[in-house]
From TrEMBL:
Domain of life: Bacteria
Protein name: Uncharacterized protein
Length: 254
């Protein structure tokens, strides 16, 4: 008996299926983003726009020539550019319903931020090929956030599947949606994302001051940063813990 398998028909079917699914994804993501924007609190929206703009403005300073550079600075610049690219990818993922993927990249940026700080205070040879020690650097904030990010990134428990959004079918079946659907956890996911990016901008402004000196006028960025920090506190994105005497110190993740 000859081979009756129709390879051409099979390929045509696979192509149609893949193209149709991609079209479904585009429609689903557009709908999810529309819902996200309608549910995003006004203060969150104002904060998000401010944070994104400040990240862009500060990172673009790096297009200027640095007079005295070295291997550490070059390494840090690469980390900064990667962080910035990833920040905006995460934004899209959160608004479009890809929360597991967003949390996974938040973990990546948390590690990148940790490495930026580690390079400031350690010889490169001590850091190469070693995983950044997030908890050691961020203390309580790291202990609260990093294990959660790792659990999601590794799909460590069945509960992670809830981030896929459980949907009900007319025939009674219940299960995760294969295309992105708005999930109420999206705002909480954004808060974790923002927490990491706030610390990043703090670091970046100081880095620019160090490498550019008087060539970088930091006043506008520093004022924007402080204003943004107040917005983050008012939005519940971060909590500024009071020190003794009523002063406020480090931020804690919400």
């Amino acid at each position: 008996m000859g081979d009756t398998f129709d390879h051409k028909s099979n390929i045509d079917e696979l192509i149609r299926g893949a193209c149709d699914f991609q079209a479904d994804l585009i429609r689903a993501r557009a709908k999810t983003q529309e819902i996200y924007r309608s549910k995003e609190p006004v203060k969150h929206n104002s904060f998000r726009i401010t944070l994104d703009g400040l990240i862009v403005r500060t990172s673009q300073v790096l297009s200027n020539r640095i007079e005295n550079t070295n291997e550490k600075i070059s390494y840090q610049i690469s980390l900064v550019i990667s962080f910035v690219r990833t920040h905006f990818i995460i934004n899209d993922m959160i608004m479009e319903g890809d929360l597991i993927e967003a949390f996974t990249l938040i973990r990546k940026n948390f590690e990148s931020l940790t490495r930026l700080h580690e390079i400031d205070s350690n010889p490169l040879l001590k850091l190469l090929k070693k995983t950044p020690n997030v908890i050691n650097l961020f203390k309580e904030g790291g202990k609260k956030l990093y294990p959660t990010l790792s659990e999601i990134a590794h799909f460590g428990t069945p509960a992670v599947g809830d981030l896929l959004t459980i949907t009900s079918n007319e025939d009674g079946r219940v299960g995760p949606s294969i295309v992105p659907v708005y999930n109420p956890d999206a705002i909480a996911c954004y808060d974790r994302h923002a927490y990491v990016s706030i610390y990043f901008v703090f670091w970046l402004v100081q880095f620019l001051k160090n490498v550019y000196g008087e060539q970088y006028d930091s006043k506008k960025d520093e004022r924007t940063l402080l204003s943004m920090l107040r917005m983050a506190e008012e939005s519940g994105i971060i909590e500024l813990k009071p020190e003794e005497g009523g002063k406020k110190n480090h931020a804690a993740s919400s």
